[in-house]
Task: structure prediction
Amino acid sequence: MSLRIGIDIGSTTVKVVVLDQNRNLLFRSYERHYSKARERALETLQGIQDLLAGQQVQLVITGSAGLGVAKACQLDFVQEVYATAAAVDAFIPDTDAVIELGGEDAKIIFFGGALEERMNGSCAGGTGAFIDQMATLMDVTVDQLDELSLKHEKIYPIASRCGVFAKTDIQPILNQGGRKEDVAASIFQAVVDQTVGGLTQGRELKGKLVFLGGPLHFLKGLRQRFVETLKLDEAHAVFPENGDCFAAIGAALCAEDYPARAYDQVFRQLEESVESANVVDTMPPLFQDQAEYDAFLARHNASRPPETDPATYEGPAYLGIDAGSTTTKMVLIDPQGGLLYTYYHSNLGNPVAIVLEQLRQIYQLCGERIQIRGAAVTGYGEDLIKNAFHCDLGLVETMAHYLAAAHFNPQVDFIIDIGGQDMKCFKIRGGAVDSIMLNEACSSGCGSFIETFAKALGYNIAEFSKLGLLTRHPVNLGSRCTVFMNSSVKQAQKDGASVADISAGLSISIVKNAVYKVIRAANADDLGRHIVVQGGTFLNDAVLRAFELELGRDVTRPTIAGLMGAFGAALAARNAGLARSALLDREALEHFTHTAKPATCNLCTNHCSLTVNQFDGGRRFISGNRCSRPLGKERVAQPDLMAYKYQKLRAMCGKGEGDGSRGRIGLPMGLNFYENLPFWFTFFTRLNFEVVLSPESSRQLYHSGQHTIPSDTVCYPAKLMHGHAEALVKAGVDAIFYPCMSYNFDEGSGDNHYNCPVVAYYSELLEANIPLLKETRYLAPYVGLHRPKDFARHIGQFLREQFAVPPQETAAAAKAAYRAYDDYKADLRAQGEKIITQARAEGRPILVVAGRPYHIDPEINHGINDLITSFGFALLTEDAVAYHEGYEPRRVLNQWTFQARMYQAARYVCRQEDMQLVQLVSFGCGTDAITGDEMRSILESHGKLYTQLKIDDVSNLGAVRIRIRSLMAAIEARRQRPDEREEADHG
Amino acid sequence: MAELVYDKTGRLLFTKEMKREYTILIPQMLPIHFGMFRKLLELDGYRIIQLNNSGRAVVDEGLKYVHNDTCYPALLVIGQFMDAIEHLGLDPHKIALLITQTGGGCRASNYIHLLRKALEKAGMGYVPVISVSFGMERNPGFKLTLRLLRRLIFGMMYGDLIMWVSNQVRPYETQPGAADRMVERWSDKLIDGFTQGKGMSRKQMRALFDQIIADFAAIPVREEQKVRVGIVGEIYVKFSALGNNGLERFLLSEGAEPVVPGLTDFMIFKFYNRVADVELYGGSAAKKALCRLGMDYMMSCQRAMIAALERSGRFRAPSDFAQLHRLIHGYLGDGNKMGEGWLLTAEMLELIHSGVPNIVCAQPFGCLPNHIVGKGMIRRLKDDYPDSNIVAIDYDPSATQINQENRIKLMLANAKALARRAREAAEAGEERPREAVV
Result:
């Protein structure tokens, strides 16, 4: 006669379950453990002493954080998926699949036949911790988030791969006035998409599904999203009563196989065990002692601007607003830069309301004595605030920060700003912002990230960061994105690190992230001699100290580090020299109203998510658009080679000059086909096949194929191929042709002419992972277009076997295909020349967008071309100019055809006064880890600017906008100081 | 002091003078194999230091000098070099670094360039880097002569055999450490033999194979069968304990027997790729014949090793390359050659066919070829072999061991359930015929 105890120790919660011999549930609990898992479990057990004392028990521990505890206590352990399966088998035996979300894990278990389990990979954050993080970001509790979501009207696309991605998606929506209800539901939808898309991997979720784990147990909104997305009825969506502690129940069931022991002994084992704490990877302390900390404080507090008493001051004043991603900052200065008024606060997702309230206060303060002569706004919410309140000018963040830094240290040559969500670093050369480094979506570990951790561990941010200052052994947590950091913290906790050690470790990892991931510096000299740090995160002394220690040099932190953007904007307003400001006056503010409504623009395939802001007096501001069409303006044809290429390629379908008698052959329009389609189109139509292209890429197309993607870290262009292939099967083509190509055309410009491994062999991956392809004839031969004669011979044989095509006919088609491909290239180059000539005649700057051929797909680039041309640039692609340059040795192995073109394009741009280049990089593209550095060094050695635009499956162009505008500001500055450019050329 | 000489592309050469004056540092991947390679290089007149530094410092140096999105092996190998240069106390003007370059379409062919960039970044652009490759970069002071090449192949064979048999002994040894002591004894013995010119003929190799097998077979073991777990993956992460957080050790501690396919297949594969290129796309028949020759040579050595294992009756033998190649048909084309290419999938198939359906597929985070041949093929293998139990594990500077181990534990729990089911089925199967007789 013994009781069975299951203890499930997850990343954030402990679940304890007691069953009797007949599997009756005697006790259950679900509690957060705040990293003190063992203690929490002990307390729970203590609370049910009456039930357990003196009994024989069989106890089994499970859970992602349970292993260490079990080892230390020498108690039995079962893997948590295994435990869950045991519970489901026992209580809901006809289950087809289980979806279980935990604090940091997402799992699907398939039943029926052999048990199959899927867990989220190391890069998959669509979990409870992700929801917690998002709730923090929106400044609501998780329960409130849930309630909000139930009132949604619209779903925005939000990436859920990791918290950081999602933040960059959510922030602009909030800043542009999107409804919180919609965002809340979108967050849940992101979790659903991540789970369904990321974990099913080719196996369909169907039949009776059981939903388990804390988040799915407590959050109705999340349940609703799952049920709707999977189109489940009540009989097929089971949310069991104890779904939050099923794994613990399973562990208790598994305990039947383990020996019974006296409860008191088991309890002692759990109580007395100390997990080994000496394996934690630690680093030197931030400060040796209090005295060192005091000296540090004294040094930094010396950089402070003068303060002017607003109660007595009379005269002009200038207003700066920094509508940042999570906080709104405002500064009012006198003409000398003296501070009259400052404000720094979380914007609670609604910057308009905050600014309105502050403006009223400021007017109150000013009375008749102070006249606002100018108002400038910067930051994510720039456009919205500028339109809402009629600010005089808007400027890009980088410029604002530079103006502010130079005010304190005119010699400044490097600025680093770490804010709540974003990190900006840039060098100053010749009085202009140069080489901007922003945190790419995957690497940010910024301020709000510490804050989230602080909250999760039960502290406020100020206390939490103080804790780390004097600790002796900061934990080494590595330097990657939040999801990784979560598990690093989990590991450190398991290993017995204290909260203070973790606090210091987090501060240090933020700095490491900035220095090695964003700036990518090898030493302090890479940065500069006069470094100014700013942004709210640097007000955290632990972060500042870690930064100085990492660089081995002292830096300047103005006391208004958190306000520098607003301060810089105020300086810009002052420099504008206006007689009076157009800012809404006191009276106008009285009638100020603001409502925001979401809308989707349907004027083109971008389907921009618009936010329509209505202000008093019928004023309107629309945000989220890429081009001017939703604003009611006509779309004018821009000098845009991307759009030209895309249209030209999409037109290559049908029977061409042939009669289509051999059948319809489908080509999945992605990856290599963006380069080789002109070849294949002619080749197949000559052979009297009708060429069917898969439909234009779209989010929907992606979702339709998402469940068959086996590797969630592959690039988006590759992921899209699944949808393309399925669409072709559904279109009923006679065969799909998608060749494998280790090599692409040899253009003689590199050391080799490979495709990257993904482009080369993705066809084989599709064949192995898309069950639907069995319904068609799927052709994936290895071909080598780089050797025309051999190609004709090999493909001739292949087509004779497959379609009984006479080899002579194939040989002729191949010849024509090579010609067609050459013609296509020639046309592209001619069109490029035309654009250059036209741009030069009009005095337009020219931007070469260097990426892969498939980056012209609007679903992949999210309309970046429209954005670029809207700023007045003429747009060329890399392949239109690469041919101007020949072979040149590189410092890397120049072995990929497409990548070689980018180097050539960069070299060409270096020789053109009026051209700049931006590099497009897909998230997850391994080869660009290599090309990026090389592109930068080519461009910078000729005094050109290097700008990299990273793109992913989610279309947030905010960061892209900052980069392009900063680029424009830098071009402008260079134009004004041509001598600096010369120096760089010779230097 | 050796003069710094550059070729016409501006690459710093490793000169004959340097061969006399410089010490060459080589990274670590497979301790048994690389120990022998070191000795063989020394016998050719090079001064060699084999690096064994590991730990966080190596990772940190890597993070500092290599783009963090570059694959983890590059980060580790370069980190290991940079850390060693800093701490070994050698005159940096008297060292050279050696690194392999396979020349395929994956990023690995760029490691050498990333290493040079790292050196430049550290202000040590004067340190020459030697590429071990077939004709990609030449150096007057370093030559892969036919003799050296042949010897290295022999070293590889010995290494593979010792690794293979020791893995079958270690989980069962009654005296802890017995297998490792035997590994060390044989490594020393072979290296001593090389110095005296022993072990470098086919005949001697066959004799040594038998002796090695006999010595390992003589180690006392317990009679039990542990769950066997195959390890496949990107070559560095598969083999290097630094790369895979001591995967073999972890599996041992969990009561499993690691099964690690050797290095030989990978080397044959790299030769085969050149043959396949010519077959698929055309090209020089002479080159193809030459590569075929190299392949055949290694394949015959491999067959000798397999024959010795089969003779022993004590150890399981691996399949040969030709068998791996047969297995892959219907899965991946012969042209899938970047990184580990089709070989990786073939190794998984071979493991499944030889009764090891439990597999850890280890790869660096974001590894490009592995999207296709690793993670990309697991679904298909599951379809064809429902009992296959494969877990893909990503390794990178910040992936935590606890997550990796948790996933491996899940695979092991599954493995044990599979084994139990198989046992029950076997027992039931044994009973049924008896009933039939009655």
